[in-house]
Amino acid sequence: MNIERALLTDGWMSERELTYLASISGKSLFIAEIGSWRGRSARAMADNTKGVIHCFDTWADNAYGAVFPNDAPDLCQHTDWLWKEFNKNHEDTIGENVFPHRMNSLEGASYAQVHGFKFDVIFIDAGHNYEDVVSDIRAWRPLLKEHGILCGHDYNPIHHTEVIRAVHDLIPEFRIFDTIWTTEIRH
Prior knowledge:
Elements: H1 4-7, H2 15-25, E1 30-34, H3 40-46, E2 52-57, H4 81-89, E3 98-102, H5 105-114, E4 119-124, H6 130-140, E5 144-152, H7 161-170, E6 175-177, E7 180-185
Parallel strand pairs: 1-2, 1-4, 2-3, 4-5
Antiparallel strand pairs: 5-7, 6-7
Helix pairs in contact: 2-3, 5-6, 6-7
């Protein structure tokens, strides 16, 4: 398992969370990531799967600010800064085993459905309010293969109570790895 490059990519995912994503990716050939930001979690998955990852994100310039020590102070003021950061962090994987789709979560789910995609793993880390998490789970869950893994980030009682509430309302059984919630879906 290799998470070295993921650890070098700025983001909020812990080493334990990256290790979990790497481990489930090693057993998966078709993965969807909803909300990729700079690509830290996508990097952990890309470096450990023999399959492909479809990353769905708007990469909107308003998606968080530059909060890391190595960032240029004016990074967030540049057009497409986040999209460029993702591409820089995945310059060797895009078109190989990472396929970014610049669209919101629900557009992405519709795109995946139209193209007949069924995923082994779906990782949700897009909107963090209750309505967004509920709509993401409802839109993406039908796109899992039998016994697929549905999981998401920020199950955090301090910062993201609405994520927790949405998961409790829609997912009957799940496990937690730091702030990743995860469950196997049986259709």
